[in-house]
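Re: that backbone. Tokens:
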């Protein structure tokens, strides 16, 4: 097992305050580089499981390469990190690690294999791994419904896991469901808006009443879209959010506000410099508004978001410091006027 200690890296500590449109003062408490051992470390997710932190990401030679693997780190305090899993695939590139907790309380890692050579005319296979303790992991489960598709991330609601595919056979997206994280079945085919640009990456959230929210990258006109649906989630209504994003992640804070992370550009119409940002989503006004820019640049984005003890914890990757590395930021987004 590998050990990685935050204190061995140069700590980036910044105090920034920006008033967001959701009525909050956003302050970056600290930012740390937590992993950079591979030539390219990217595409993160973050979760708390059994009172410990877990951060998952892909290691490879570059943003796109023939061989990639998923690494899972664990930490007691968010400072000292230990490698507890390293997932590979013969003759394949394993990509886009996403973490969730199943209905029976297991930690689930899901991703997708990009085959070096097509298998049965397919280039991708969705896969999952399960762990009861975050250290002992199952074999890779490759459900037949995942052959030829790329299920992006998983969100659990009422003991059911939901995931949306966007690549290969899922040209316009398909909503899949699972009860065990192993076997999956289609719930709603052709989910995305009907447009020559059908959309791809997604992040799902379900409120206590069962309302589903989907933050979609690259909908019509290459714009981010908000999707809304009621159970059984077969009919969706889409709203243009008027901004182009990459690597979307959406959560709802304990106080009801929706916060998202995404890659933005200084000049989106002219291919300006990219960076990773936090944004407020207004699901009623159908707006997505940037409120904080994280230290980032170049190849960057794909964040994990967790609210914990009054702070927003953000894992992400960036190449603004010599090489593409994994970072962890803690952000205070207390409502304006809240007492500390």
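Recovered sequence:
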């Amino acid at each position: 097992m590998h050990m990685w200690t935050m204190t061995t890296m140069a700590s980036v500590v910044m105090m920034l305050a920006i008033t967001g449109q959701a009525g909050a003062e956003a302050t970056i408490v600290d930012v740390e580089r937590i992993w950079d051992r591979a030539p390219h470390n990217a595409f993160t997710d973050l979760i708390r499981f059994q009172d410990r932190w877990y951060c998952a990401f892909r290691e490879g030679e570059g943003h796109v390469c023939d061989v990639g693997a998923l690494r899972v780190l664990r930490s007691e305090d968010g400072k000292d990190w230990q490698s507890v899993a390293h997932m590979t695939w013969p003759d394949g590139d394993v990509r886009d690690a996403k973490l969730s907790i199943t209905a029976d309380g297991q930690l689930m890692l899901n991703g997708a294999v990009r085959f070096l050579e097509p298998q049965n005319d397919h280039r991708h296979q969705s896969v999952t791994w399960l762990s009861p303790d975050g250290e002992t992991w199952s074999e890779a489960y490759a459900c037949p419904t995942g052959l030829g598709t790329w299920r992006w991330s998983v969100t659990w609601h009422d003991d059911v896991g939901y995931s949306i595919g966007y690549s290969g056979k899922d040209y316009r997206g398909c909503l899949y469901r699972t009860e065990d994280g192993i076997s999956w079945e289609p719930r709603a085919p052709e989910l995305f808006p009907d447009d020559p640009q059908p959309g791809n990456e997604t992040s799902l959230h379900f409120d206590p009443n069962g309302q589903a929210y989907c933050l979609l990258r690259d909908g019509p006109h290459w714009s981010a879209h908000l999707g809304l649906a009621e159970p059984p989630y077969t009919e969706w209504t889409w709203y243009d959010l008027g901004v182009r994003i990459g690597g979307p992640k959406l959560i709802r804070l304990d106080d009801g506000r929706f916060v998202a992370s995404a890659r933005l550009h200084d000049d989106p119409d002219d291919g300006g410099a990219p960076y990773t940002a936090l944004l407020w989503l207004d699901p009623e006004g159908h707006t997505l508004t940037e409120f904080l820019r994280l230290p980032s640049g170049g190849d960057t984005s794909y964040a994990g978001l967790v609210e914990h003890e009054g702070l927003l914890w953000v894992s992400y990757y960036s190449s603004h410091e010599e090489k593409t590395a994994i970072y962890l930021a803690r952000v205070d987004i207390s409502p304006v006027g809240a007492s500390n």
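Confidence is low (pLDDT under 50) at residues 1-21. The radius of gyration is 19 Å.
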